[in-house]
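During the second half of the funding period, the structural biology subgroup turned its attention to how the target accommodates small molecules. The most pressing case was NAP, which had performed well in the primary screen but for which no bound structure existed. We therefore specified the complex as follows and requested a full 3D prediction, including the ligand pose.
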Amino acid sequence: MYDVIIIGAGPGGMTAALYASRADLKVLVIERGAPGGQLMNTADVENYPGFSMITGPDLAMKMYENSTNFGATHTYGNVTKVENEGLVKKVYCEDEVYEAKTVIIASGSDHRKIGVPGEEEYAGRGVSYCAVCDGAFFRDRHLYVIGGGDSAVEEGLYLTQFASKVTIVHRRDTLRAQKVIQDRAFKNEKVDFLWDTVPVEFKGDDKQITSIDFKNVKTGEVTNAEAEGVFVYIGLDPLTEPFKDLGITNEEGWIVTNEHMETNIPGIYAIGDVRDTVLRQIATAVGDGSIAGQEVYKYITELDD
Ligand code: NAP
């Protein structure tokens, strides 16, 4: 029986592991990929205090090492379900069931799909959701990035080191991204913009994407552009499927907590990107993780009293 099982080893989960294990709790972190979560898809981080610039994977590795300093155990597992049996929580993985007094859900979010024809078919064959993973395959190509938020513009800028040109395609005529990031994109000679435009079909030759049909949302006009690579950054969807029976999510699927990171089930907490929150940043996930790590300690101490 663990004191706390943390589901997900992103910045939030790893911080919760650090705080809870430093409070001498028996901690298990379950993760189905490499530790780091969305950090592993992030090229450069320049808004995490203490580092003027660090790559996402480097920061992930530092957080991972730090999270194990006080005895937290990390294990591989794909969580499929959590059951609340009052004082005991059961965490089901594909081939294992773990038990704990408390659970911290830090499962994060996934890149949203556009849902147009050809997207699924050409995923990994010219359609990508990860510039850090796939950017280097597209040297000297003209690339398209879909979206107007921080991720689209930042990752579009990252891609300019490989691409001959990066066209950012946005459904409105003003970007959502932070101004400092926008300014960089407007100054970059390799970046141009296609405003008021959405992709309606990714076309290919069965092996690879070869062109994209774009629609101007104001005029309704559809045009076809040759394309060898497209990166989709249109926001995030919560990874909450395994928790849907617990009744802790809102209509959009994000987990609702109070300021103590508690859900409406005593002993079950949620932190980071998966939480219904106003800002999804590395720093906010870390803040959530520290609160939850401390809160599980208080909850367990009160149980034991
Ligand atoms: P986001 O902020 O939700 O932006 C999504 C973008 O995609 C918006 O511009 C949106 O258009 C567009 N979009 C949404 N659905 C679309 C569709 N079906 N078709 C075409 N376009 C669509 O998502 P994000 O950029 O992935 O960022 C997620 C979170 O991480 C945010 O909180 C962001 O601030 C944070 N983040 C921060 C940093 C940083 O601080 N350096 C870096 C990356 C991410 P509209 O603008 O019209 O809604």
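Two results from this model are relevant to the next phase. Residues 47, 114, 146-152, 154, 171-172, 176, 198, 233-236, 280-281 surround NAP (CB under 6 Å). The mean pLDDT is 96.
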